[in-house]
Amino acid sequence: MPPGLPPPPAPPLRLRHSLAARITALVVLVVITSGVTSLLIIRELRALKVSFDLLTIIYVKFNQDLTTAYRQSVRITTHARERRGSEVQRLSPGLEGVLAEAFETRAEQVQQARSVLDSAIAHPDRLGGEEAVRTLREFREVLSRLEDLAAAAANLKPAEALADVRSENEINELFRRLDDQVSRAIIDLQIQVSERERETERTIALLAAATAVMALLAALGVIWTLRPLRRLAASVRQLGEGDWAQRVAAPGALRGDEVGRLALEFNHMAEALQERERRLIRGERLAAVGQLAAQVTHEIRNPLSSVALNVELLDDEIASASPEAQQLLRKITAEIDRLTAITEDYLGLARRKPPERVPTDLAAELHSLVDFMAEELGSAGVEVEVDAPGPAWVLGDAGQLRQLFMNLLRNAREALVGSRGGAADDVSDLGDLSSDLARTPKIAVRLRQGAGVVRVSVEDNGPGLPVEDVDKVFEAFFTAKPQGTGLGLSIVQQLVQDHEGSVRVASTGPGGTAFEVQIPACAPPPPSVSSAGVPV
C-alpha cells in the first residue's frame, strides 16, 4: 500500500461463512441434541411414573379397601358359623348391632374400592395403555356383583343376612377371586416397573453418551474454526519482535469471515507500523542533520557577529559617505540579520529539550507576548486584537509556549507583509495585490475554554493558503518563501506535541488563514502562603 493512502476496504462479510454463523450452528446442533435427549428422558421418566402411580395410587389403594371389606366379610362369616342351627330370634341386641355395623362397613368398603376403580377408568390417559384399562374393567365387573350382594346384605336384618348362607358364600368367593387377580396384577406391574426402570437407565446412559459425543464434535469444530487465530497470534508475536515486514495470509480472507477481516486489518496495521518506522528513521536523520546544523551554526555565529560589529563601525566611519555606500551598508546589515535569524532557527531545532511543564496561565502569557511583540508588529503596520479571557490554566512550559505562539504571530505577520509586496513565510500567497493593499493587515488572537481543553486561534486577514500547501505547512524545511527556512511551523507542531496538544489549519481562503492550537487544560495551582500564613 503506498504511504499516505487509506487502506483498501475490507471485503463484505458473508454471514454463512462467518465465525459467528459456524460456531452458532455448532452450538445449535449441541442444543438440539441436548433438547432431544431431554425430551426422550422425560418421556421415559413419565412412562415410569405412570407405571409407578398405577401401582401405588390405584392398585395399592384398591387392595387396601378390598382387604378391609374382606376382613369384615370374614368376621360376618365367623359369626354365621357360630350361630348356624340356632334360632334367629335368640341374637342378643348387642350382637345384632355389631353384625349390622359389620354389614354396613363391608358395603361401604366395597363401594370405596369401586370408586377407586371408577376414578382411574375415567382418566385412561393416566394409566399408560389399554391393557391397564382392560384389567381395571375386569376388576370392576367382579366388584359390581360384589357391591350388589354386599348392599343387599346390609339392607337385611342381621339374622336374615346370616341365614342367607348362599349369598355369603358367593360374597366370600368373589373376595377371594378379586384378591387373587389383584395380587397377580400387582406382581406383574412390579415386574413391569423394574423392567422399565432398567430400560430408562439404559436409555439415559445412551443419550448421555450421544450428547457427549456431539459436544466433543462441536468442540473439535470450534477448534478447527478458530485455527487461523493461532497463525494470526504467531504473526502478532513476530511483529512485536520487530519484524515489520510480517504479513498474515489467512484462507479466511478469501472467504470473507471475521478471521479474514482481522488478517486484513492486521496487515494494514503492520503496513502503518512499517511506515511509522520509516518516519522515525527519517526523524532520527533529521535530528542528526540538526546536530550537524548546530555545529555549523556555531562556527558561523562568531564570524557573523564580528562582521556585524565591523559593519556598524564602518557605518560610523562613513556616515558622511555617498548615499550609494550607505544603501550598500544597509543591505549588508539586512543580510546579516537574516543569517542571524536562520542560525537561531537551526539552533532552536537542534537544542529543543523536553518542556518543564507546570500549571501556567495561558491567557496571561498571550497578553504578555502580544505586549512584547507590539513594537515589532506595529512597525510592520499590523494591528493585533486579543480576546483571551483568563485565567486559562494549562500544564506547560511558559518559555516554549511563548516561542510557539511567537512563531504563529510572526508567521501571520510575514503572511500579511508578503501579501502587500514583502517576503512571505511558510504560508504566504501573493493573491490579488489590489485587494490586499485595500485591506488593513490585522491579526486576531482568541482563546476559548471547554471540554477539558484550551483552544487558541491565531487568525490573519491575508490572502490565505494554496489548497495544495495546506497538508505540507507543518513539514520541516517546507516553505514558499525564496529565502525562508521552513522551520517556523514545524517547530510549532513539535512544541504542541510536546504539550500533548494538537495544531491544525482551522480555515483558509481569500479572507485569511486561522491556525488553531488545542492544549489540555489543568487545575489551577494551590495558592501560595507567605511566611505570615497569609495566602499570596
TrEMBL record:
<dbReference type="InterPro" id="IPR036890">
    <property type="entry name" value="HATPase_C_sf"/>
</dbReference>
<dbReference type="GO" id="GO:0005524">
    <property type="term" value="F:ATP binding"/>
</dbReference>
<dbReference type="Pfam" id="PF00672">
    <property type="entry name" value="HAMP"/>
</dbReference>
<dbReference type="InterPro" id="IPR003660">
    <property type="entry name" value="HAMP_dom"/>
</dbReference>
<dbReference type="GO" id="GO:0000155">
    <property type="term" value="F:phosphorelay sensor kinase activity"/>
</dbReference>
<feature type="domain" description="Histidine kinase">
    <location>
        <begin position="295"/>
        <end position="523"/>
    </location>
</feature>
<keyword id="KW-0547">Nucleotide-binding</keyword>
<dbReference type="InterPro" id="IPR005467">
    <property type="entry name" value="His_kinase_dom"/>
</dbReference>
<keyword id="KW-0812">Transmembrane</keyword>
<dbReference type="Pfam" id="PF02518">
    <property type="entry name" value="HATPase_c"/>
</dbReference>
<dbReference type="InterPro" id="IPR003661">
    <property type="entry name" value="HisK_dim/P_dom"/>
</dbReference>
<dbReference type="Pfam" id="PF00512">
    <property type="entry name" value="HisKA"/>
</dbReference>
<feature type="transmembrane region" description="Helical">
    <location>
        <begin position="204"/>
        <end position="226"/>
    </location>
</feature>
<keyword id="KW-0418">Kinase</keyword>
<keyword id="KW-0808">Transferase</keyword>
<protein>
    <recommendedName>
        <fullName>histidine kinase</fullName>
        <ecNumber>2.7.13.3</ecNumber>
    </recommendedName>
</protein>
<dbReference type="InterPro" id="IPR004358">
    <property type="entry name" value="Sig_transdc_His_kin-like_C"/>
</dbReference>
<keyword id="KW-0902">Two-component regulatory system</keyword>
<keyword id="KW-0067">ATP-binding</keyword>
<keyword id="KW-1133">Transmembrane helix</keyword>
<feature type="transmembrane region" description="Helical">
    <location>
        <begin position="20"/>
        <end position="42"/>
    </location>
</feature>
<keyword id="KW-0472">Membrane</keyword>
<dbReference type="InterPro" id="IPR003594">
    <property type="entry name" value="HATPase_dom"/>
</dbReference>
<feature type="domain" description="HAMP">
    <location>
        <begin position="223"/>
        <end position="278"/>
    </location>
</feature>
<dbReference type="InterPro" id="IPR036097">
    <property type="entry name" value="HisK_dim/P_sf"/>
</dbReference>
<keyword id="KW-0597">Phosphoprotein</keyword>
<dbReference type="GO" id="GO:0016020">
    <property type="term" value="C:membrane"/>
</dbReference>
